[in-house]
Amino acid sequence: MRYATDATPDDEPAPREPGTQALDRALSVLLAFCGSETERKVSDVSRELGLHKSTASRLFRALADAGFLQRNEENGNYRLGVAVFELGARYLAGLDLHALARPLVQRLAEDEGESVNLSVLEGLDAISIHVVQGTRNLQLVSRLGRRIPLWCSAAGKALLIDQDDATLRATLATAPFTALTGNTITDLDTFVSRMAVVREQGWALNDQESEEGLRVVAAPVRDRRGRVTAAISVSGPIFRLDGERVEKLAAAARRTADELSRQLGYGFGEVWGD
Q1: What pLDDT does 11 receive?
Q2: Domain HTH iclR-type: where (predicted)?
Q3: CA–CA separation, 6 vs 14, rounded Å?
Q4: Which residue, 37, 48, 76, 75, is CA-closest to 60?
């Protein structure tokens, strides 16, 4: 974090409100607890942040007084306080998949010009809960609430990405594997085999398996416990989505899905005790 006194040679120093530098430094102290150590020494943090030890000590005491840090009286080290937990709990309580996804999905559609869907698992289908149409010509229109069987949709495969072979067989034991096109996977053994590739690459492809002339890539979205809770997919006509373009869109879908996962708390399981 740059402090108020930090400026690049080409920047004019921005006007700062009184006390802003102290706030910046206090936030930097809190962020110093984001690593694996549950307790930190004032001297270690002051050295990392380039602060005088007396300045760091004042910041630690102020944060402890406010409940953001807690002092271990036995060794003088500090750990995060209950106020941090309370804020985190409020954040988690306010999480809304649809609300968090909306701007990310919109940006992905604008950046790539192709249609983007947010889908969730329901029974043997992937169901679209948010759709943004692309800006390029010849868009294949998708509709909100559309259901596509798991075995012939990129979103469906992404939603199943964490299931091992045995779990996949149990999940799809009653699936009819109806053919929608000549490319639809029509038997469980083949589907299970293909899913090994999906797991390895981290994203899924629908290559004209649900609709002739349509290619779709999808990536999984995870909640704070690491469970796949949704999938983000990008679709377009096959003449635009050739091999190189498919790889590019898959990477973009993964970045967007990873960002949404992060906003949902994924990657912070140890913090929340999950």
Answers
A1: 42
A2: 20-82
A3: 10
A4: 76
Give the tokens for residue 272.
Answer: 């929340």
Q: Residue 257: which H helix or E strand, with range?
A: helix 243-263
pLDDT at 198 over 90: yes
**pTM, rounded to two decimals:** 0.69
- CA-CA distance, 147 to 241, in Å (whole number)? 22
> Has residue 204 got a pLDDT over 90?
yes
Rounded to whole angstroms, the Cα distance separating 49 from 15 reads 22
Whole-angstrom Cα distance, residue 132 to residue 168? 30
CA distance 17 to 173: 63
Q: Report pLDDT digits (tens) over 24-52.
A: 899 999 989 887 788 999 999 999 999 99
Helices (H) and strands (E) in the chain, counts: 10, 8
Question: What tokens appear for 8 in the block?
Answer: 């690049």
Section 174-199 average pLDDT: 96
CA distance 70 to 62: 11
